[in-house]
Design goal:
The complex is a heterodimer of chains A (about 475) and B (about 525). Chain A has about 475 residues and is an alpha/beta fold. Helices cover about 45% and strands about 15% of the residues of chain A. Classes of the chains: A alpha/beta (about 475), B alpha/beta (about 525).
């Protein structure tokens, strides 16, 4: 497994932070780290209702405390009723606490306009990436004569591709169309399959919608094309939808499951699909709790039995993560005591991120040599930088990818840590970097201010 | 794409053989697109996944859950409730959490509570310290893949104190999602090679089936070494040697796993035994994996927990600088019983730097361990100290829990040994009894006829007639022709007494029935 460019940057950041702690003079007082899709790290506050329920579940004596709203106490009671020994310290059933799995399936059905969801097809896991790696484990046959291939987008979130490679599979990249705002074009899927030729056995197609790092939200039409393609080429569809709660602008999120169902038979009865969601993103932002789930659609029942057994050896997903999923899929409703505050807090997060998206778009596109489509969804902006030839040359001389070179200088001189595009895969000769926009607005403004100053100087130095 | 992988698959582009000649699955779509074969079938799926079994949550547990459902729907049964004595889940059986831990975790979850007077000062201080080490001061931020640095430092200090001053480098500490995560990751690192060069991993029989499941999934070779039931499940080096010598003929043995205190057997290894194992691993160049999650669960007189790390270092540099060791601990057992938090750590000694880099990458794929579990581990390694407000209560809760377990361990051994046809070794530690049962020939035959292991047959009957869910010994491995079951000692004492009596009654009835 190849080392990420980012790891060097992260190490350098640690050194710089240590220098700052020791009082070394720098052009900045602290490092702004926007390399992670981590809202809480970016300063966003957890939702009060969520944390109150978690606290009451962890320390039930709090339920005697009238300071906690009635609906918090009721929810905590209900959740503890579903825990063995009424404790969040016990294991749960393999697929998760049955009441929570049931409620997650109801959420899915509501979200999808009534398309039925069967709790038997849902597994709560220690984060969506864990779930994805388990499903990949079933798909990727490391012993076969031909390596298992999984189609994945370029650019793609590196953890997924690492997961595929770590299991002995091979990634077949399909290029997203940057000119069309990172659209997935089915011709590219075809092209990717053809390039793979006889080199491997393609078994699955991974899509992430909304996109990471691209921020693109797929149109229904595009999703239908993907489904048809998967059916035609006999590919198992893996739909990573963890950013479904992060939508900006006019596009709407629709799930692959819903699109599939609405396409009717035979597709709706045959295309095999695994969709992934998590409590790490959206308004919850609870990355550290590790609450994720996978829903399986149209799987062979015999295979499902093996998948179930595979999950049994993992014991169970962390209880607090499962509870986070319950709260995410069943938030306070109008009329509930906690609703007002909950609504205020989520509205505040929404308006902050909307402002961030707008500001980032304006500022980044105003800089010479930058181009960035509007972020439609997800946690990141992924601008393209047209680096001057001199900079590219310098990068080569010091043995670095040009965008990593840019990112390192940005870190050293402006104290901003972003992720270089070369870690995600990009078309030859293009350069990008990714930064998180689920952060406090002040932090974003400071980041953009530093970027502007740095970039102006950089372009002068390398013109 | 990543240059490495794009080159890799381009290099593999050979000829344009047709799908059928390559042995790849043919298109099975019929003319109208109906009744087509699935993409993912039992033939196309990863074959190693099919070999995975995990008896602790296996078929007998599924039947137990069904019975629970039937009971709740009002169906009449010979029992009023199903008792899940199959799984090492202390809280499920009524064990109470440690108050201090839950207070700190509640404060970490909802820091507004820091202004609430119901919480003692030391809990508040601890919560602040933990939150300061979290991104955005929240349990909801990702931590570094290796775990929160300050927690790793605290774990290192705990290990140093536990091991009488033997130094521990926090860089060698990896926080994990329960001990299982660490164990499986290490096995992933160790397993490679093809055919006769395929990695072999030595594991005790009986063993905790996570090991056999992981080895099956990885396609590694499982090398069984038998613990000595007649000698209270002790480990004989000669048996290790026998197993190793034989295994060398068909695989490449690279690792030796040992669970101490043992699961399911409960034996606590003597210091001498641990030294012998270390010497053996050194001589045979085996990576040692020491599963020590039950390190506080030691009950029998004359038994003491000795950590592999401590013994290793006390054997001097010839061993301490060469033997590669990974030891595992968790928040799920001992006196905490906090399985649901999925807290754990591993300490890695003498691992090659390049391999460490690979380890880091492997761990990064699952991002980070659950942060509440990391916070809990911090409290476990850093409990209240004498003089602190929460100390008295902490000590009394911890002592009560551990002594209750010790009592129940003794009780279990005593009662089961009064039953003819059941022989139970002393439960020296951990959380289980693993008695040997005599199954009449007639029953063995009936079991074989229905394609069941005799002890599974026995346990299923017990479940149907008494509602008690145990795990048959065949799920853990046992000497051919012997039968066992594993039963936890976790139910509250009064309930346990009743359970043990029911087991006794059932065994007598069963023996009678099949005589």
């Amino acid at each position: 497994m190849k080392q990420l460019e980012y790891s060097d940057l992260a190490r350098r950041m640690t050194q710089i932070k240590e220098d700052l702690r020791q009082g070394v003079e720098k052009p900045f007082k602290e490092v702004i780290d926007v390399s992670w899709g981590d809202p809480h790290r970016g300063g966003m506050k957890p939702l009060t209702f969520v944390r109150q329920v978690l606290a009451a579940c962890v320390y039930p004596q709090l339920m005697n405390d009238n300071k906690l709203p009635v609906d918090v106490r009721q929810r905590a009671q209900k959740l503890l009723d579903g825990c063995a020994g009424r404790s969040v310290g016990s294991y749960s059933a393999t697929q998760g606490i049955p009441e929570i799995v049931q409620r997650v399936s109801e959420f899915i059905s509501r979200r999808d306009g009534g398309v039925p969801s069967n709790p038997e097809n849902i597994f709560l896991c220690c984060g969506s990436q864990w779930a994805l790696s388990r499903i990949l484990n079933v798909l990727v046959n490391a012993e076969a004569a031909f390596t298992t291939g999984v189609l994945a987008p370029a650019p793609c979130y590196r953890t997924t591709t690492l997961s595929i490679e770590g299991l002995g599979g091979v990634v077949i990249p399909y290029y997203l169309s940057e000119e069309q705002g990172w659209e997935l074009q089915v011709e590219e899927l075809q092209q990717a399959l053809e390039s793979a030729g006889g080199a491997c056995n393609p078994i699955a197609l991974y899509v992430i919608n909304p996109g990471n790092p691209t921020g693109h939200v797929q149109s229904r039409k595009s999703m239908q094309e993907v489904i048809r393609f998967a059916s035609e080429k006999r590919l198992f569809l893996l739909a990573d939808e963890v950013y479904q709660g992060c939508i900006y602008g006019e596009k709407e999120f629709v799930s692959y499951k819903r699109v599939l169902a609405e396409m009717g038979p035979p597709l709706s009865d045959t295309v095999e699909l695994a969709s992934f969601h998590s409590a790490s993103k959206g308004f919850m932002g609870e990355c550290g709790l590790r609450g994720g789930y996978v829903e399986l659609v149209n799987l062979d029942p015999a295979v499902k039995k093996y998948i179930y057994t595979l999950f049994t050896a993992d014991s169970s997903a962390p209880l607090l993560g499962q509870i986070a999923l319950d709260l995410m899929t069943n938030p306070p409703l109008p009329g509930d005591p906690s609703y007002f505050q909950f609504d205020q807090e989520t509205q505040h997060i929404k308006s902050t991120v909307d402002k961030n998206v707008k500001k980032a778009f304006e500022v980044v596109n105003s800089l010479q040599g930058f181009s960035c489509p509007a972020v439609e969804g997800g946690a990141f902006a992924f601008p393209r930088i047209h680096l001057p030839a001199k900079a590219i040359q310098k990068a080569k001389e010091v043995g670095m990818q040009p965008d990593t070179f840019y990112c390192l200088k940005l870190l050293e001189e402006a104290g901003v840590l972003v992720s270089p595009g070369s870690d995600f895969g990009q078309k030859e000769g293009t350069f990008h970097f990714r930064f998180c926009i689920l952060i406090l607005h002040d932090v974003l403004e400071e980041l953009l201010r530093r970027l502007t100053l740095f970039h102006t100087q950089f372009m002068k130095d390398f013109s | 794409m990543n240059h490495g992988t794009s080159l890799l698959w381009k290099q593999r582009a050979l000829s344009s053989l047709s799908a059928t000649r390559r042995g790849l699955p043919k298109e099975k779509m019929s003319e109208n697109g109906m009744s087509r074969a699935k993409v993912l079938t039992i033939d196309t799926m990863n074959p190693t996944v099919k070999k995975v079994e995990y008896a602790v949550r296996g078929p007998i547990v599924q039947r137990a859950v069904e019975l629970e459902r039937e009971l709740s729907e009002g169906m009449k049964k010979p029992f009023a409730e199903v008792i899940k004595a199959n799984i090492g889940d202390a809280h499920a059986m009524g064990q109470q959490p440690i108050t201090f831990f839950r207070q700190v975790l509640a404060l970490c979850s909802y820091p507004e509570l820091l202004s609430d007077s119901i919480f003692p000062e030391d809990a508040k201080n601890r919560a602040c310290r933990i939150l300061n080490s979290c991104g955005g001061n929240s349990l909801g931020a990702y931590s570094a893949s290796q775990g929160i640095e300050s927690v790793r430092q605290d774990v290192a200090r705990y290990i140093e104190r536990r091991d009488g001053g033997v130094p521990c480098d926090p860089d060698n500490i990896y926080l994990t999602t329960g001990a299982s995560d660490g164990i499986v990751t290490m096995l992933k690192l160790l397993v490679c090679g093809e055919g006769a060069a395929r990695t072999g991993v030595m594991i005790s029989i009986p063993q905790y089936p996570l090991y056999s499941a992981a080895l099956a999934e990885l396609g590694a070779v499982q090398i069984n070494y038998y613990l000595n039931e007649e000698k209270c499940w002790s480990l004989d080096i000669s048996e290790l040697q026998r197993a190793l010598n034989e295994a060398r003929r068909y695989c490449n043995p690279r690792a030796l796993c040992i669970i101490n205190p043992g699961n399911p057997t409960g034996q606590v290894q003597s210091r001498q035994c641990i030294e012998d194992v270390i010497r053996f691993a050194a001589k045979e160049r085996l990576f040692l994996m020491a599963d020590e999650v039950y390190q506080d669960n030691v009950y029998a007189e004359g038994c003491q927990f000795h950590s592999f790390k401590k013994v290793l270092f006390e054997m001097g540099p010839e061993y301490s600088e060469t033997v590669e060791l990974a030891s595992f601990h968790s928040t799920s057992k001992c006196y905490m019983g906090e399985c649901g938090f999925r807290g754990g750590y591993m300490e890695i000694i003498n691992m090659d730097d390049e391999v460490k880099a690979q380890l880091t990458k492997l761990l990064s794929v699952r991002l980070c361990p659950p942060v509440p579990g990391q916070a809990l581990m911090d409290l476990v390694v850093n409990p209240p100290q004498p003089g602190e407000p929460s100390y008295e209560r902490f000590i009394s809760e911890r002592t009560a829990t551990l002594s209750a377990l010790a009592e129940k361990a003794k009780l279990t051994e005593q009662v089961l040994n009064t039953v003819e046809g059941i022989r139970c070794n002393p439960v020296q530690g951990a959380m289980y009894s693993f008695p040997r049962i005599t199954i009449p020939e007639k029953a063995i035959k009936e079991a074989t006829d229905v394609g069941q292991q005799p002890d599974m047959f026995y346990c299923m009957k017990m479940l149907e007639e008494t509602g008690i869910c145990l795990v048959p010994g065949s799920g853990f491995g046992q000497k051919d022709g012997t039968y066992h079951f594993r039963m936890t000692i976790l139910p509250p004492k009064d309930k346990l007494k009743i359970l043990l009596n029911k087991v006794q009654e059932f065994h007598q009835k069963f023996t009678q029935q099949y005589s």
